From TrEMBL:
Domain Pectate lyase span(s) in chain numbering: 118-314
Keyword Electron transport in annotation: no
Keywords, sorted A to Z: Calcium, Lyase, Metal-binding, Signal
Annotated protein name in UniProt: Pectate lyase
Signal sequence segment: 1-22
Gene3D superfamilies in alphabetical order: Single-stranded right-handed beta-helix, Pectin lyase-like (2.160.20.10)
Cofactor info, note text: Binds 1 Ca(2+) ion. Required for its activity.
UniProt key word Nucleus: no
Cofactor annotation: Ca(2+)
SUPFAM superfamilies xref list: Pectin lyase-like
EC number(s) per entry: 4.2.2.2
Length: 390
């Protein structure tokens, strides 16, 4: 008969090891790289798919969909659909070829879209993305650039991860395919990502820069959205939440901006909010040229644990900008645990509860602003290699 003792010992050790691992997981989200590299600290989203028990991202790409935090937490993307691989960077706006990004983007059924190689996709018209879609750029370098870029219109459940979206310009045509056989007319404005009457959206680890209009415009009652871990640079009007003071439908808007790095060369609107609610948490702001956080029409803004570095120009130290001459003292704009460098300051207004009231699955620990340079140090697309920890 076999001696049961080693088995017993093994199971006790396993339990102990699991407990030790679980407690370090809650404490500091710290992992030690197994290849002798220094310790790295990851934010909650990255820890979820880059470091948990099965850390080889390429073995289970769809685990990513469980890792969002904040109001966009429930965006399932293409988790329950087939895998679609983009192998062709060309674009035909009306009769897209199988293998191109547009063909996968407009299909009716859910799809998890990935790419077989590095590519620069120059679109001829805006790319309208259908509901239940993930665009997963991990493992390759994918740029959507030098043409019209991304639109989400009356859709839901979209995840975009690890794509470089830059130098977006208005298209020459106004006719755009929105689903197979269905054509719509669009105004052409040259946004990076335009989100219109859409919900359950998560944009993570993208690079966004130098577009004709906004980098991300989130308008017309769009809600349940998380914008995280992105790197923004070299642009004037960065992010609009609500496009018109008179559009009451934007009151429902709930957006989480977390772990983003607003890098050099940005002018204003990070974000500019109308009517809705924005939780702006643990973002890094480098020297802006006008203001980082602004708004009009009584929006609620909760700025928590951000890291603001003002420029040396004594006229542009203020974080906040209200587009209103009077009445703004009633708007709830609050700052908590923010870190202000080089004379930056936030002008608060109103009183009362400003909490996001997240559900248990949406909630995340917001660190003090001084931690933000570490928490955002991986902002933008990551270099991931299949078969290795990313
Ligand atoms: C918003 O989108 C939904 C589909 O998700 C649609 O039923 C509704 O009519 C749209 N609302 C407006 C104002 O366009
Ligand atoms: C701002 O001033 C500090 C201290 O004089 C200097 O080190 C820094 O380079 C200046 N930054 C810019 C962008 O000029
Ligand atoms: C959170 O709840 C408080 C208290 O009920 C409320 O005043 C506040 O508006 C809520 N915040 C959001 C974002 O819904």
């Amino acid at each position: 008969m076999e001696n049961p003792f080693p088995l017993l010992l093994l199971s006790i050790l396993t339990v102990l090891a699991k407990q030790a691992f679980a407690s370090s997981l809650e404490e500091a989200s710290t992992i030690v790289s197994s290849y002798g590299q220094p310790k790295i600290k990851l934010n909650k989203i990255d820890y979820c798919w880059r470091a948990k028990l099965l850390p080889i991202w390429s073995a289970n790409r769809r685990a990513l969909a469980e890792c969002a935090v904040g109001f966009g937490k429930d965006a399932v993307g293409g988790t329950h659909g087939a895998t679609y691989i983009v192998i062709d960077s060309s674009d035909d706006p009306i009769h897209p070829k199988p293998g191109t990004l547009r063909y996968g983007a407009v299909q009716k059924e859910p799809l998890w879209i990935m790419f077989n190689k590095d590519m620069v996709i120059i679109l001829k018209t805006e790319l309208m993305i259908n509901s239940f879609r993930t665009i997963d750029g991990r493992g390759v370098n994918v740029e959507i650039a030098y043409g019209p870029c991304i639109v989400m219109h009356d859709v839901n459940n979209i995840i975009i991860h690890g794509i470089r979206i830059h130098d977006c310009v208005p298209g020459k045509q106004e006719i755009v395919l929105s689903s197979p056989g269905h054509i719509v007319h669009r105004l052409r404005d040259g946004d990076g990502v335009d989100i219109f009457n859409s919900s359950h959206i998560w944009i993570d680890h993208c690079y966004l820069a130098r577009c004709t209009d906004g980098l991300i415009d989130l308008i017309h009652g769009s809600t349940a959205i998380t914008i995280s871990n992105n790197y923004f640079t070299q642009h004037d009007k960065v992010m609009l939440l609500g496009h018109n003071d008179h559009f009451k439908g934007d009151k429902v808007m709930k957006v989480t901006l977390v772990f983003n790095h607003f890098g050099p060369g940005l002018v204003q609107r990070m974000p500019r909010v109308r009517r809705g609610y924005a939780h702006v948490a643990n973002n890094r702001y480098d020297e802006w040229l006008m203001y980082p956080i602004g708004g009009s029409a009584n929006p609620t803004i909760f700025s928590e644990g951000n890291y603001f570095t003002a420029s040396n120009n004594s006229g542009i130290k203020e974080v906040t900008k209200r587009e209103s001459d009077s009445g703004w003292k009633q708007w709830k704009w609050r700052s908590y645990n923010d870190e202000f460098e080089n004379g930056a300051f936030f002008v608060e207004s109103s009183w009362g509860n400003c909490a996001p009231n997240y559900t248990q699955s949406q909630t995340f620990k917001v660190y003090k602003g001084s931690m933000v340079p570490t928490l955002t140090s991986y902002a933008g697309p990551l270099r991931c290699t299949a078969g290795y920890r990313c």
